[in-house]
Amino acid sequence: MSFGLASRAAALIAATLIGTLSVAATPLRSDLRVPRYAHIFLIVDENKSYERVMDGQDAPVIAALAKQYGAATHFYAETHPSEPNYVAIVGGATFGIADDAPFTAPGHTLDAPNLSTQLESRRLTWKGYYESLPETGSLAIRSGLYASKHSGFLNFRSVQQDPKRRDHLVDFLQLEKDLRSGNIPNFALIVPNLCNDMHGAIGGSPFDCWTTRALIRRGDHEIKKLVAQIMASAAWSSRANAAIVITFDEGDVGGAGGGHIPTVVVTNHGPRHATDPTAYTHYSLLRTIEDAFGIHNYVGHAGDATVVPMLPLFQIR
Fold first, then answer.
1. Residue 128 belongs to what H/E stretch?
2. Residue 86: which of 296, 219, 285, 266 has the closest Cα?
3. CA–CA separation, 264 vs 274, rounded Å?
4. Among residues 67, 98, 110, 204, which is most buried (max CB within 10 A)?
5. Number of neighbouring beta carbons within 10 Å of residue 238
6. Residue 313 in contact with residue 292, Cβ under 8 Å?
7. What is the CATH number for 80?
8. Percent of the chain at pLDDT above 70?
9. The domain containing residue 131 runs over which residues?
10. Rounded to an integer, what distance in angstroms lies between the CA atom of residue 291 and that of residue 30?
């Protein structure tokens, strides 16, 4: 990576350490050029570095999607471990969270604006689809292969106390129903379970949920299935713009900040064979999602001066 990219990445990662919430409303020219999108499907996987996934040996589907559509080649997570990155994706900050403690722990339930409140203020719809969720709207901390630390939305009091929580936090069966019926939210956060997101789990889980290479292959197969389901939906064949974003919460433990992670953008009307070397973080992705829905009152660090939208991967051909 060049010195310029390294410096920019360092500045972006450093923003996570500030710990204060700022909301900016000064869009750049590039923000205003991000096309409007009707649907964005964000799939989040776990704990694998860019190099480990994108070599294509164990994740050929993700690597092929990156080549056919678009890849952010210098995308960085905020920190380690998982939970603060999920919070950053939808809240624009880690809020000082530095562990995977339950959202019920001190400092882990947040009173702050987030993507869900932004969308609702614009009368746009959203859902979190969580594989193996024990029941719709569940406040469970851990149940089988479901873990609330991978929710993101559930760390916010506005979601915990949402009277429509059962409509907003649902499982993969509901995802299949929504895609078939066409009742698809504007924004969908899609989180596979601990075996299918490359995280891994032991104790009652399949053998290929234990080892790194098997986990990557299993997670890659899950991506293949999810992308196929989305592409078979009416939303994808529509003239309206739709995007599937595949990213990771963090890289292998030990990398600077949260590590260098794969991020792939698949669009129905956007770029093909695009490679974007700009240094991005989850805050860049959040800002781009906000732009795509016409929201320019950026939440948290998505509004920082060092953060730019991912325009090359979302622009329309």
1. strand 126-130
2. 285
3. 10
4. 110
5. 14
6. no
7. 3.40.720.10
8. 91
9. 3-314
10. 10
| 101-138 tens-digit pLDDT | 999 999 999 999 999 999 999 999 999 999 999 999 99
Q: Residue 257 and residue 177: Cα distance in Å, rounded?
A: 38
Predicted pLDDT at 57: 95
**Residue 310: how many other CB atoms lie within 10 Å:** 25
Query: Which one, of 86, 76, 65, 34, lies nearest residue 291 by Cα?
Result: 34
Strand partners of residue 74: 279
Q: Is the model more confident about 2 or about 78?
A: 78
d(C-alpha 184, C-alpha 302), whole Å: 25
Domain count, the chain: 1
What is the C-alpha separation between 256 and 251, in angstroms, rounded? 9
What are 154-196's pLDDT values in tens digits? 999 999 999 999 999 999 999 999 999 999 999 999 999 999 9
CA distance 247 to 227: 13
Q: What is the pTM of this model?
A: 0.93
String of DSSP letters for 139-150:
--SEETTEEGGG
Cα angle: 174, vertex 88, 106; to 5 degrees: 95
Crossing angle between the packed helical segments 212-231 and 172-181, to the nearest 10 degrees: 30
- Between strands 169-170 and 260-261, the pairing is unpaired
- 39, pLDDT greater than 50: yes
Backbone angles phi, psi at 240, to 5 degrees: -70, 155
- Looking at residue 35, the DSSP 8-state letter turns out to be P
| Residue 63 one-letter amino acid | A
Higher pLDDT among residues 82 and 255, named by residue: 82
Locate all alpha helices (DSSP H) within the chain, ordered by sequence: 3-14, 29-33, 50-54, 60-68, 82-91, 115-121, 157-160, 165-168, 172-181, 212-231, 234-237, 282-292, 311-314
